Amino acid sequence: MSIPKASLLVVEDDPAFRRTLLILLSALGYAVRTASNGPSALDAIGDEIPDLLVSELDTPGMSRFELLLVVRHRYPSVRVIAMSRSISGTAVPPGAAADAFYHKGKRSPHLLRIVETMMRQPRSLVIHPPVNFGPSEFPPAIATHRDIPLHNELRPARNERRSALTSPPAGFRG
After folding, report:
1. pLDDT 10s digits, 94-131
2. Segments making up each domain of the chain, as ranges
3. Residues 6 or more apart whose Cβ sits within 8 Å of residue 48
4. Cut 0.90: pTM above it
5. Contact between 8 and 54 (Cβ < 8 Å)
């Protein structure tokens, strides 16, 4: 039995595509686990932190991009490849906390090249600082991912942001 190259977690709601990725990546020597939605992915990461997360951007059970934001915040050393059928191109979409992007309309060898490239890079080149959610960052008392506030709950209301931008700083004399 050979030692796996690295551990991967694939998050995909389409069972056929999830199985295809499991077979392809396992054949390349990776230890692959799968999850069908965001909450089960966070449970799997809690059990064992993967070297690489390959995730659909629209994961059931979580809002758009939310899984990637939580992973980046709680596990900043995990490399992340975002996938989507609805977003085209090769660049990571704005707002996606990912290191690389795969458009699911491309052939799977393209994804395999991205995975191989990501795994060859030294970890220090792909680690990003955790996404800063501001003063109401995740409290240390969070017991499970179900206790993590949704990203949009952490943002100030629209009128609060506007007043903060238009109000002069305290002590300003203009």
Report:
1. 888 999 999 987 887 888 999 999 888 766 544 444 43
2. 7-126
3. 7, 33
4. no
5. yes
